[in-house]
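Cross-posting from the modeling subforum.

Setting up a comparison between two proteins and wanted a second pair of eyes on the formatting. Protein 1 (sequence, then structure tokens):
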Amino acid sequence: MKKVLVTGGAGFIGSNLVDVLIGDNIEVIIIDNLSTGKIENVNKDAVFLKHDLCSIDHSKFVDILDGVDTVFHLAALARVQPSIDNPIPYNDANVNATLNVLHAAQKACVKRVVYSASSSCYGNTSRIPQKESDPVNPLSPYGLQKYIGEQYCKLFSEIYNLDTVSLRYFNVYGERMSLSGAYCLVTGIFARQMQEGKPLTITNDGNQKRDFTYVGDVVTANILAARYSMKLNGESFNIGNGRNVSINEVADMFGGEKIYGETRLEPFETLADNSKAKNTLSWEPKGNLSKWIKHYKIQLGI
């Protein structure tokens, strides 16, 4: 890789990826509309362009991609419940924008698109751990939309000879994760509630389990996928830690009082079978949620 585009490069995962790419002396262009990303996350050595991928002029987009060999497509409207409340803008951001990225990348002769997919495509399955070959059964517009993105990637590899790869993330946590708003994950919610001296709110009974994956491991997976020497042809890979814990256990890692609130339809358990990513991409997750929370609490002064 010499020159890359990172969509969503001002966001949580995207900005962490950009920092590593810049550290490897790779030329980076960022496209972000700052709807959820933050300008303070943007690496000063990257070229930042504020555009909305749903409405960007196609010829202009192709020009931006001139000389780019790899596109990391991380831009999205994430989270399940907001997509249920507002499915149309989510479809624009997660499906239409992805199609625009793939179309422009194909026209610009980009070598590979690395697509940020989601484990939410599996839905509520009794198959544990989840394997890439398992049936998909998304429970939300978000889960469906991210899976449609995977299918578009595969089609563009088959029809247009644009090499693509989809990385199905499992519950990413780490530096720069949101602590507020609709896009906040449970780790961010608990951190904010601890800061505010409030009890930790838990949906359902808290026994639901999640495979929490460190953002640094996700960044590594993206780079390994981009550098893989052979064509990937739209293949999907689980990017998960391979171990899961209950929400009650996460709350205990933070400490403090717990209260139980609303009931939501959500998968009871997520757990990645990450053997495909390990064997094909030589990826090895290293994050440890418990150790990270201890360090993070010190950083936040809680």
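Protein 2 (same layout):
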Amino acid sequence: MSLLYVDMLIERPPSLYRLLFPEAMWRHKRRGRRVVYLTFDDGPIPEVTPWVLDLLDRYDVKATFFLVGDNVRRHPELLDEIRRRGHSYGNHTMHHVQGLKSSRRAYLRDITEADKLIDSPLFRPPHGLLWGGQSRAIKRKYNLVMYDLITRDYSRKMTPEKVLDNVKRYARNGSIIVFHDSLKARENMQWALPRAIEWLKQQGYEFDVLPM
């Protein structure tokens, strides 16, 4: 299997993987609208999240933030600011726990701990990875949100130009697009995000938040 093909499987989850989690939201089409959904994972942190919020304000764009509970515990004012600026937000576990490395009980406990701080019906699993039993249990309380396009801004193998190219190559109507408001992704994201927004607007896309 070529490295290019492996990269494509990361950037756009294949149909077979989507079928494993039919209860999850991968795209969100809106009748009569050409729309995409910017989402940001792993924050909020003071080094990056305020910059993202200011940029979104500049372009008059709303987005959805999937928050790590421990970051909210340390920086509750950033969740307040996300709310104040009209964005939606969801649970991304308390400690950025990967489901495949956790029992169902431990995973759900971590989600519940984060929920006490975040209080949202939206949930996205870190890395987009979890067991079927975890997924079904989560769905009883939360709307499980995956993604249609991951920019890979977090990867040290990626250039900022390549991150932008991923948006141009894979974005489509209803795409849920993942960027990261994290230290690891900051350099790539800060270069690619404004250019991605400008390009998407040029293509006639509107931006919306995922409904809470």
